[in-house]
Amino acid sequence: MAKTGIVTGGGSGLGQSAAVRLAEEGVNIAVVDINKEGGNATVEMVKEAGADAIFIKANVSDPAEVKQYVDKTVDHFGTIDYFFNNAGISGSGKHFLDTEIDEIENIVGINLLGALYGVRYVSEVMLNNGGGSIVNTASSAGVIGQDSVVTYSATKHGIIGLTKSMVAEYAQEGLRVNAIAPGPTETPMVKEFYEANPKMKENATGGIPQKRLGTPEEVAELVAFLLTSKAQYINGEVIRIDGGFTNTK
Ligand SMILES: NC(=O)c1ccc[n+]([C@@H]2O[C@H](COP(=O)([O-])OP(=O)(O)OC[C@H]3O[C@@H](n4cnc5c(N)ncnc54)[C@H](O)[C@@H]3O)[C@@H](O)[C@H]2O)c1
What does the similarity note say (predicted)? Predict the structure, then answer.
């Protein structure tokens, strides 16, 4: 029987690529995003890749909307086998003391609370059905400290704590939870961020041993591997996919 996956932030970048890659494995996808246009585009791409998909508009920072995207997925597909918990924003790249409180709350609300709410409701369904697999999107900034992304970095370090502690609590009940820590990857979010902060792009590429950014397709390959049964004994891991970037820090 076909598996079902939820991909948050599925309307763009890493989420969109992962949705398509999972579809190639025959996984049906609930595409969750605040961006209806991007989400619907992904639904079409998933269908072209041969799987079924629905778009669910939801803001991951609102727990009621998170509960709703989980319920709608179960209503439509019957269960949830895989969860790519990925929606996130980067923030403005300002120095911390120049950052408004609103921006701090927004980044934490989407990146960290949104991820926690997602795991809270999705794993409830998975555990009731005997288990499942989750991949949370952290970042290089979740593994090392970085300039001008203090709040973002705090949320991504939090994602890693969430990942490891869920395993301590629920692995014996059939749950696998891993995190990916991508370095700068060529998605719309990063293009926008580097357009606003060109010096940071120079610094970033220069600091990557492979001297290039990653691609969403490379990250999607890792996500599909971790989510599916090929990675059955990998649990609580944080896999860096960054061209060697954080290993040289
Ligand atoms: N691209 C990179 O270099 C990079 C590196 C490390 C980590 N990440 C992380 O990867 C994830 C995806 O980023 P991306 O680069 O694909 O960005 P992106 O901007 O291309 O895609 C993010 C998607 O999330 C959606 N989104 C934003 N806020 C939302 C909300 N409140 N509710 C629902 N959906 C929301 C956006 O509409 C968008 O479709 C993020 O968590 C990001 O922090 C990205």
Answer: Belongs to the short-chain dehydrogenases/reductases (SDR) family.
The pLDDT, as a whole number, for residue 124 is 98
User: What single letter denotes the amino acid at residue 188?
Assistant: P
Rounded to the nearest whole angstrom, what is the distance from the C-alpha of residue 178 to the centroid of ligand 1? 18
CATH number, position 168: 3.40.50.720
**What would the pLDDT profile of 97-106 be if each residue is shown by its tens digit?**
999 999 999 9
Our CA angle for 136, 102, 86, nearest 5°, is 15
Pocket around ligand 1 at a 6 A CB cut-off: 8-9, 11-15, 33-35, 38, 59-61, 86-89, 110, 137, 139, 182, 184-185, 187-190
Distance (Å) from CA 1 to ligand 1 centroid? 30
Q: Quick one: pLDDT at residue 188?
A: 84
pLDDT tens for each residue of 152-184:
999 999 999 999 999 999 999 999 999 999 999
In 3D, which of 45, 44, 36 has the Cα closest to residue 17? 45
Residue 117: helix, strand or coil by DSSP?
helix
Atom of ligand 1 nearest to the CA of 109: 31
Q: Is 69 a catalytic residue?
A: no
Q: pTM for the full model?
A: 0.97
* Those residues with Cβ within 8 angstroms of residue 174's Cβ, 6 or more apart along the chain or in another chain: 126, 127, 130, 131, 132
Range of the domain at 244: 4-248
Identify the active-site residue in 69, 117, 152, 194.
152
Q: Which parts of the chain register pLDDT below 50?
A: none
- pLDDT for position 24: 98
